[in-house]
Fold this sequence. Notes:
There is one protein chain. The protein has helices spanning about 105-110, 165-170; strands spanning about 15, 20-30, 30-40, 45-50, 60-70, 80, 90-100, 115-120, 125-130, 145-150. The longest helix has 6 residues, at about 105-110. It has an 8-stranded antiparallel barrel with strand order 2-3-4-5-10-9-8-7. By secondary structure, it is mainly β. Mean pLDDT is about 90; it is low at about 1-5. Strand 3 and strand 4 form a beta hairpin. The chain has one domain (about 15-155).
Amino acid sequence: MPTNGSGLSGWECTMPTKQLRFVVHEHKATRLHYDFRLEIGGVLKSWAIPKGPSLNPSDKRLAVQVPDHELDYIDFEGIIPEGTYGAGPVVIWDSGEFTSVDTANPEETLSSGKLSFVLHGSKLKGGFTLAQMKGLPKGTGKEWLLMKKKDDFALPYYAIRSELTPARIAQLKQQVPPCDLE
């Protein structure tokens, strides 16, 4: 299938009136995970991804929806103090803009249980879909899958690399994030 010049085969992107942002925080709280956040509806819609996002279309990553975060949180890096929700180091693993696919209203599309979008980050590029896992026997309704689309940015042998190195952690300051999540 021919590409549309963007590296995305057969994808039609609907440009919102303003660019929407995304961020992936690498976060070592109780366990290491990656917080995937999309700017939708004036907040950061958020999912915790235990294994992190992947550029391999064969990987279907569990993404557990967590409470929305304020937009101020998009630039947060630091060490969240013990005794505070999410205690532990947090760094920006990737960030950039995203474009929703086939919709001018990603909030409405997301509420239907599926959202396709194109990421324009430094690490994550190309088409992705978030799909809610419905009908799980012990599901909470917060279980989603993050899946990479097959496009020119797909990497079949992708392995995530941590940014939370000892040197990077040593540069972080202890601080409470700009939003109260409890």
